Amino acid sequence: MTITATRRSSRSWFTAVGAATTLAVMLAGCSSPDADSAQAAADETATDVRTTGNQYGTKAPYVPFEEMEDYAPIPDGYEPVLVEHLGRHGSRLLSSKKYDDLLYQLWEIAEASDGLTDLGEQLGEDLETIIAVHDEVGYGTLSGLGATEEQGIGLRAYQRMQDLFDGAADSQGSITFTSSGQDRATKSGDNFFIGLESENGSIEQIVAPRIDDPDLLYFHKSDPEYLEYKDNDEDLSDVLDQIESGPEVEEVARDIVSQLFTEEFISRIDDGEFDLVDNGKGKKHLTSVVDTASYLYELYVIAPLMSEEADVDFDAYITEEDAEVLAYISDANDFYEKGPGFEGRDVTYRMSNVLLDSFLDAIAGISTGETTQVADFRFAHAEEVIPFATLLQLPGSTKQAAEGDPYTYDNNPWRGAQVAPMAANIQWDAFENSDGDVIVRMLYNEAETAFGFDCTPIADGSYFYEADELESCLAPLRG
Fold it and tell me: pTM for the full model?
């Protein structure tokens, strides 16, 4: 695996990646006999930029991938009539008491036995800060940054389709609010609507009471074939074991741990002296140098997400270069467990066709009159957004891993920070003219994005598609 590291701020990296994503979807949006070549070029362009600054994986904070002023104009004669939206929850705290607790247990043992370096001494204070925040705010909850992200997405959704929402507020239309039922998804929706309503308070009156629908928005916990795959598939366990046990991982882990603990204490870890168990669910163990570095990485990626709750910075403990190696491990897990996965198999994403059915049915209902709402806003998780992006073959999610050729950054464009950062979203905006013709555009993390599967836009290079065309070209993906 070759990883190119470039030091730059998170904001500048996201700006650069956003520009690459825009170029990628422009290439993918061209309708021509060379559509496959255009998609390949899009993925290659994305890969060139995404291999730098990717150290946060799917824990990357959210920024829109394209500015609204860069969108193509809506075709003449068409007015907005419907928004179909799926969003991942915004930035959150640690999901449960495990990584912080296990590292603190190890730190206390090292402190008591003079096994800490000067930098290791500093780690204890940062661990105590993180634990205190979680004890006060709660594990798995939406962070202040997450609330800010969702409010911004909601505000921009209103600004893009202002005439639709203002008209609905005046005519007492309706907007649906559906959640997975998990607290961070529900609070993400609450904050999204704060943004949506911020420039027109009347919208609040037309938002229907929230519905929790885990079958639609938490299907990764109930689909039996998927659960069997994740828990018992030998190919999955073998490839992840191969990736996680690579020599580069061991090298990076030692580089990280040696800055925190003395050689004598690291030898005790290597000798198998410790088998620490978390005081949360009691399922996670710390037994090795790789465990120690991996768990520290989990705090490295969560620290920016809790910036409004605590001033903690883990950059001193993990270099960007080392973080990118560990990000690859995280991305590989998500790729095989939630994304494109193994060539010729669809178990990781087939279950998301329930979302496609919901989107397409609502679009079809515009013409028949069955769709009476002006917008459907759904709030879920990476485990739903990643499969849906894969089902639709959105940029970066177009290539599976061939047997005997595991996923790497060199051979595949899939990157967690691009496919499903915190607050990732997929939105279809529908427009209708006076003749009853309906067209649709797709926004992926707020960037105009072409539909794949030989779907033909209304004009070469356009991001707008006739509703009947989408129903036809996406029909094979339906449930």
Answer: 0.88
